[in-house]
Amino acid sequence: MMRKQPDQIKAAINRLQDLKVDTVMPAHCSGAPAKEMFQSLYGKQFHAAGVGRLIVLDQGRLTVSTLPVKPDHDSE
Description:
Helices cover 32% and strands 11% of the residues.
């Protein structure tokens, strides 16, 4: 969405909402304007994605780390 016009971004967000998408996690390639629009329209259901962020989906429950997580080198 980085190179999309604001009306195109809004249309995409509206479509996601029509599809009942209730949580979003746009990444860096979405672009700052799109991320701002997602955050504005999704509020607490907006989470920033990024390298090192831990995202856990467990039986319909979403948990997102607040800080990037360092890899556990002992498990390699």
